């Protein structure tokens, strides 16, 4: 029995020592590393997915904010310049009134008729002023392509009039700092 107990004890001791001593082979180490990486991978994947979705959300929000600002600006511009076509179509009528006043002042017309024409003309001018339409002052000013259209160039009567406007054929108008009709001018050279 002694031998049997010693054999059994030896086997039990061998099993205990095997359990106590970790076996360090390459396969077990790789498995442990893979389980650690696989534990990190879901967190890393979720973090990357979160960053990607957050970036997409921020970009969409910025795009929408830009769209909202642009549409508000366009609406404000439409409101500000909404009557531009109506006002532009009135400008030839104003020109006709100016020509009529000029001709009537040179001919023998009764003062009552002249007062009537001047009254209508002043009402048109008040209407334009009420809608922020301003008449350009041209004569004697330097020629500017942004505001003037040169019909012709003539020799300047004086040296200081070179490059300046000598005569205005058709008045130019500005609506809220936007040119709605360029002034047609004659420039001195």
Summarize the structure.
The protein has 189 residues and is of the alpha+beta class. 62% of the residues lie in helices and 15% in strands.
The CATH architecture of the largest domain can be named as Roll
H/E series:
HHHHEEEEEE
Relative strand content? 15-25%
Q: How large, in whole angstroms, is the Cα Rg?
A: 45 Å
DSSP strand tally:
6
CATH superfamily annotation of the largest domain: Head domain of nucleotide exchange factor GrpE
| Oligomeric state | single chain
Q: Provide the residue-averaged pLDDT.
A: 82
Number of helices: 4
Helix/strand structural class: alpha+beta
Report what the structure shows.
The strands form two sheets. The protein has a three-stranded antiparallel β-sheet. Helix 3 packs antiparallel against helix 4. It is elongated, with a radius of gyration of 45 Å. The chain is built from four helices and six strands. The chain is α+β, with helices and mostly antiparallel strands and 189 residues long. The N and C termini lie far apart (135 Å).
Descriptive tags:
three-stranded antiparallel sheet; three-stranded mixed sheet; elongated; 189 residues; 6 strands; Nucleotide Exchange Factor Grpe, Chain A, domain 2; 2 domains; 62% helix; alpha+beta; single chain; 4 helices
């Amino acid at each position: 029995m002694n031998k049997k107990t010693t054999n059994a004890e030896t086997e039990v001791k061998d099993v205990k020592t095997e359990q106590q001593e970790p076996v360090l082979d390459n396969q077990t180490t790789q498995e442990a590393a893979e389980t650690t990486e696989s534990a990190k991978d879901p967190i890393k994947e979720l973090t990357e997915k979160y960053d990607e979705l957050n970036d997409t959300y921020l970009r969409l929000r910025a795009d929408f904010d830009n769209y909202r600002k642009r549409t508000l600006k366009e609406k404000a511009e439409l409101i500000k310049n909404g009557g531009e076509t109506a006002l532009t179509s009135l400008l030839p009528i104003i020109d006709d009134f100016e020509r009529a006043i000029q001709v009537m002042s040179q001919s023998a017309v009764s003062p009552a008729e002249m007062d009537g024409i001047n009254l209508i003309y002043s009402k048109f001018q008040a209407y334009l002023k009420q809608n922020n339409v301003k008449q350009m002052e041209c004569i004697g000013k330097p020629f500017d392509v942004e505001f003037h259209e040169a019909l012709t160039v003539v020799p300047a009567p004086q040296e200081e009039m070179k490059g300046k406007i000598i005569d205005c054929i058709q008045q130019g108008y500005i609506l809220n700092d936007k040119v709605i009709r360029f002034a047609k001018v004659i420039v001195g050279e």
